[in-house]
Specification:
Blueprint (H helix, E strand, L loop, with lengths): L2 H8 L12 E7 L5 H10 L5 E9 L9 H28 L3 E10 L1 H12 L3 E5 L5 H7 L2 H8 L4 E4 L1
Parallel strand pairs: 1-2, 1-4, 2-3, 4-5
Length: about 160
């Protein structure tokens, strides 16, 4: 049995080492309320933490039958929405004194892009919002947050 549990059993003082968070990947998504994830970032990150910020839209490639101008308008709308959220979030985080690096707006298979960003920046933790899908919807649609939580090397905080 691990030493910590032995100490708890015998009533000895236990001092757990909680790692310092110096790099955080904050993932904002278009299908959930991103403000909660930002609130958790404020409470978790230390004064010297660097926050890598990205906005993702989980979207399969459009079928070839979709007119090019409609596709362009859709992608443009998502980019504008994402940039607005990133700008607002960056201002809030920088006003609180955090070092922020924006990784941009990413449209496509969200879990793949989040895991790629994790490999690139090697954060101490990933913070992202979760929709809280029902079991049936999760089975039918899949879950970005579940896939990231299963595949990521860093701990993942899912915020509902």
């Amino acid at each position: 049995m691990p030493e910590v549990f032995e100490k708890v059993k015998t009533g000895e003082d236990v001092h757990l080492h909680i790692p310092q968070i110096s790099k955080m990947l904050l993932v904002l998504r278009n299908d959930v309320d991103h403000r909660k994830a930002i609130e958790y970032t404020f409470s978790l990150a230390g004064a010297s933490s660097k926050i890598y910020l990205m906005y993702v839209v989980d979207m399969e490639p459009l079928p070839p039958q979709v007119p090019e101008d409609l596709e362009r308008k859709l992608y443009q709308r998502y980019r504008e929405e994402g940039n607005k959220v990133l700008d607002e979030s960056t201002r809030m985080l920088k006003a609180a004194g955090f070092d922020v690096e924006v990784l941009g707006v990413h449209i496509g298979i969200a879990a793949e892009r989040i895991l790629k960003a994790e490999k690139e920046v090697q954060p101490d933790i990933i913070v992202m919002s979760a929709r809280g899908l029902s079991t049936l919807k999760k089975l039918l649609l899949g879950s970005v947050s579940d896939e990231v939580a299963k595949e990521a090397k860093a701990p993942v905080l899912l915020v509902k």
